[in-house]
Amino acid sequence: MNTGLDLELSFNNLLQGFGISSEISHILWLPLPMLLVLSSALIGVLVTVWLERKVSAAAQQRIGPEYAGALGVLQPMADGLKLLVKEDVIPAKADGLLFTLGPILVLIPVILSWLIVPFGQNLLISNVGIGIFLWIALSSIQPIGLLMSGYASNNKYSLLGGLRAAAQSISYEIPLALSVLAVVMMSNSLSTIDIVNQQNSFGFLSWNIWRQPVGFVIFWICALAECERLPFDLPEAEEELVAGYQTEYAGMKFALFYLGSYINLVLSALLVSVLYLGGWGFPFPVEWIANLLGQNVDTPLVQVFTGSIGIVMTIIKTYLLVFLAILLRWTTPRVRIDQLLDLGWKFLLPISLVNLLFTAALKLAFPIAFGG
Amino acid sequence: MTGFFRQVADYTQNAISAGKYLLQGLAVTFDHMGRRPITVQYPYEKLIPSERYRGRIHYEFDKCIACEVCVRVCPINLPVVDWVMNKETKKKELRNYSIDFGVCIFCGNCVEYCPTNCLSMTEEYELASFDRHSLNFDNVALGRLPTSVTTDPSVKPLRELGYLPQGIMDPHEVPNKDPRAGKLPAEVLDWMKQESSKEGEIASISNTKEEVN
Amino acid sequence: MNIASSTEQICFLILGSVVILGALGVVLLKNIVYSAFLLGGVFMGVAGLYLLLNASFVAAAQVLVYVGAVNVLILFAIMLVNKKEELKQIKGLRTRKVLSGLVCTGLLFLLLRVDLTTNWNLPGPSAIGELSTERIGEHLFTDYLLPFEVASVLLLMAMIGAIVLARRDVLNTDIATGDSVDQNLIEKSNDPILLEQSSN
Ligand code: SF4
Ligand code: SF4
Predict the structure, then answer these.
(1) What is the pLDDT of residues A189-241, one digit of tens each?
(2) Residue B23 falls within a domain, yes or no?
(3) Max CA pair span of chain A
(4) Most confident of B178-182, C59-63, C173-177
């Protein structure tokens, strides 16, 4: 197995070339991936917001943002700037401390989850052994932030929105985790790197989506529910709850919620592409192409090329999924709260359990195809 | 036991059909994405109002005979005709005339019935104002002609869908000269006359006309 | 002392104080919602301690189970039952306080004794780090299979109990005698009415 690019190693070597000790160069390296992740998450959000506006407009035969930059690409920036300079209001009877803490608690786990998203063999922040499990654990913190902001707003709509959000995310977490478990069982590892590697032996034919079609659908539904996207946007159902737990928020705190929900959407799309669509894998294995062109896979040029193709592939897959989410938003009507819970507990949960059992049986029966 | 299996089968069938409908819906949404945006970028672009557009009313002071027919036919007796009787000439002398466009419903009755045709409906619809009293137009304001969309240099006039040449959906790049699809009303009348003279049944036209009326 | 171990020390101090102060806050604060949120903070602190001990799987499980499930459920219960209640003065509150204080200090002394008398410098098995997930799984399905299964049966029982409580129409007949019992329930079984209507 080739290890691909190792940016950290080359960075350290570069600094040591300047006569800096390895410990210090390591410390210098530490903040870089974090900054990279923060900025890539932010850029991802900006692109997603722009895409959301444009695709929504197209689906409704409108044009969408047009004048802020070419084709309105600067519109999300303008939005962010507006929210940044807006007055930060804390309602008089609200609980100031919890009111401020809520949005932060919602945002931090989502950003932390980016730790495990791989863009290439070595292009991720940390290859922790618990990988995908970390994401599941972290995303379970979010409802606390939602409950907190719902409670602290001292507003019945906010409280109801917070409760709904919490109920929704706990009930959809279970089928989500179970469908992830089926994938994990096939790749024998929780690490996202291993999950992707396991899928990339035969190009797109070996992607998990063919082996786990049910799991893919369940995961996607649950991911939409976790992100509170339509058709599952009950916590902020405008007609019933004004804006749910965000009702009392304005300015930067609202922006944190906004950011959180979009980062979450991009993250979910990334994880779907990692778990089911082969992550950074090109539809045809790069090794084959390299062999076809008579190149050695280990030459630096090919390595750089493979790395960039990996990033591009991940991003393409992710944004295709984001596009699908936006289309779904304009296609499906919002479900009622009882329908939502019905779907979660009576439909997705049993099916994902059966899927898990089925995967286990298949794994025992055909260890070659389903990860021995 | 069979009942249970039937239930499971029904349930699965339902789930599958639900998925199918979802896909259908997605296809519809996706299809809409390729269609022409109907956006008109007002105020840089404006639609050309149709010939019979019922916009703000134009009024010619000099033609008015102060007969007050317009007041009587108006559903809300809106026009204010301010006249005095000139004892010497024994004629009405019009002093002022006003219509409040904050109240007018643009039904066009006054225009229809005015005996001297001094009222007419224009294509102006931009009547927004900061104060609703400024919507009360007096005879001077009523006498102003609106700027036509087609002659305003700061506006790009767009034809409505029904006025575009045949086969063209996007009004942006259509030259002014291109004829609209279909016939003008006058041309339709001509065509009807020709048809009827061909068959030599003039009576049938009047019949059809009556039916239309 | 190198950078790594001093960072570890600092992290340990911060996490420890978070846990201790948070736990005190949970007990002492008057506002029950604050207590519940602080409880979440304490759980997170404990998860952080696990992380310091290189037990990342346990830490994640702690976050998932305690913060994500237990604490959220507690908050749910508090927020759904948000009734203002006049708290009556309980008789003999003082003696109760003294009693519980005694029990708690006793427990504290026990723990301190264990802490002081145990030889912590035992050469235990070497840390396995990333492999711990697999090791935990192995142990759960071999040495600890019985406790694992018993725990799952316990959970199953709790789940069935919850379902029975939630679906009240199940209890419309007395289980022992078979007679119908009127339990003055809000939700009555609605099947018979519907059946009558549809048969007409
Ligand atoms: S358009 Fe109709 S409502 Fe307006 S003034 Fe004329 S008759 Fe009255
Ligand atoms: S109907 Fe015509 S002529 Fe008569 S008062 Fe009205 S505007 Fe003047």
Answers:
(1) 788 877 887 777 777 777 888 888 888 989 999 998 888 887 888 877 777 77
(2) no
(3) 71
(4) C59-63
Ligand nearest to the CA of B75: 1
Q: Is residue B189 part of a domain?
A: no
Using a 6 Å cutoff on CB, does residue B66 contact ligand 2?
yes
Nearest to B37 among A62, A328, A331 (CB): A62
B64 lines ligand 2 (CB under 6 A): yes
DSSP code string of A156-221: HHHHHHHHHHHHHHHHHHHHHHHHHHHHHHHHT-S-HHHHHHHH-SSGGGGSHHHH-HHHHHHHHH
Both tokens of residue B70? Answer: 């317009």
Q: pLDDT tens, B133-182?
A: 889 998 898 988 888 888 888 888 888 877 777 777 777 777 777 777 77
B200 confidence band (pLDDT: 50, 70, 90): low
Q: C144: how many CB neighbours lie within 10 A of its CB? A: 13
Domain range spanning residue B43?
A: 38-166
Angle between helices C72-80 and A156-187 (to 10 degrees): 160
- Our count of domains for chain B comes to 1
B129 Cα: distance to centroid of ligand 1 (angstroms):
20
Among residues A83, A67, A192, A66, the alpha carbon closest in space to that of A129 is found at A192
Q: Residue A24: is its pLDDT beyond 80?
A: no
> Is the reported ipTM for this assembly greater than 0.85?
no
Tokens of A294: 């008579």
Give every CB contact of residue A100 below 8 A, 6+ residues apart in sequence. Answer: A90, A253
pLDDT digits (tens, 9 = 90+) for A347-358: 888 889 999 998
What's the CA-to-centroid distance between B144 and ligand 2, angstroms?
Answer: 17
Rounded to 10 deg, the angle between the A156-187 and A142-152 helix axes is: 180
> Which residues of chain B are within 8 Å of residue A330 when distances are taken between CB atoms?
29
Is B177 part of a structural domain of the chain? no
Which CATH number does the domain housing residue B43 bear? 3.30.70.3270
Buried b (16+ CB within 10 A) or exposed e, A62-91: eebbeeeeeebebbbeebbeebeeeeeebb
pLDDT of residue C113: 92
Contacts of A332 in chain B (CB under 8 A): 22, 25
Instruction: For residue B153, say if its preceding peptide bond is cis, omega within 30 degrees of 0.
Output: no
Q: Is the pTM of this model over 0.80?
A: no
Residue B140 placed within a domain:
yes
Interface partners of chain C (CB pairs < 8 Å, 3 or more) are A
